[in-house]
Structures are given as structure tokens and as C-alpha cells.
Design goal:
The chain has about 120 residues and is mostly helical. The chain is about 60% helix and about 5% strand. This is Tetratricopeptide repeat protein.
């Protein structure tokens, strides 16, 4: 996936990046997608393997779903991003609770793409 990302000195939007929607990574260390549509395709291809190997409620599976949703929005499809985040929020709320940092991060991203 390295070809789809470029390093950025400053990231302006903490809601769109971070560890599984939880606490954001340090601003200087966050990669920004150079080609969000291509990166979204890579995450979409990775997701079935994450679910199969790690399970649907594993933190890395949730992180992949979060990244896929945000990259989908950044690629120009905010409606699909909202749909993906809505499903993610339901699953995270059931597995982690409504006050978990990752659930709250997904809720922030949902609000961002819903507008």
C-alpha cells in the first residue's frame, strides 16, 4: 500500500486519520493518501482476509473498515463512506460500547462525511 500514500508534514483533519478511529497519530507521522481511490481498493481487498483470520470484531478489522470508509469519502463518495461508517458504528457499539475511543472516532468520522 505504500504507493498510495505520501508523507505530510502537517495533517489538518484528525477525524479522518488515527488508530482505528481512536486517538490520532502524531501529526507529523500521519501518512496522507496520494490516491485515495486506489488506497480504498487496497483496504477493500484486505478486509475479507482480516475478517477471516482475525475475526469481525478484532481491532485491526475495525481499523481496516474505518480506513476503508474514510478513504472512500476522500475519493469522492461521501454517501458510501456514511453507509460504511454506519455499519461500523453498529458493530463497534455492540462489541466495544458507545463510549470506547474507537467508537467515538468512528462517530466523528460519520458526522464529518454526513455533513
Amino acid at each position: 500500500m505504500g504507493a498510495f500514500f505520501q508523507e505530510s508534514a502537517v495533517v489538518q483533519d484528525d477525524d479522518a486519520v488515527g488508530r482505528a478511529g481512536g486517538l490520532p497519530a502524531p501529526r507529523s507521522a500521519v501518512p496522507r493518501p496520494a490516491r485515495p481511490a486506489g488506497a480504498a481498493e487496497e483496504f477493500a481487498a484486505l478486509l475479507p482476509d482480516r475478517k477471516r483470520v482475525l475475526g469481525p470484531t478484532h481491532p485491526h478489522t475495525f481499523a481496516t473498515r474505518f480506513s476503508l470508509a474514510n478513504l472512500t469519502g476522500e475519493a469522492g463518495d461521501p454517501g458510501r463512506a456514511v453507509m460504511l461508517l454506519s455499519a461500523l458504528l453498529a458493530d463497534q457499539t455492540a462489541a466495544l460500547g458507545s463510549n470506547h475511543p474507537d467508537t467515538l472516532g468512528a462517530r466523528r468520522a460519520f458526522a464529518r462525511w454526513r455533513g
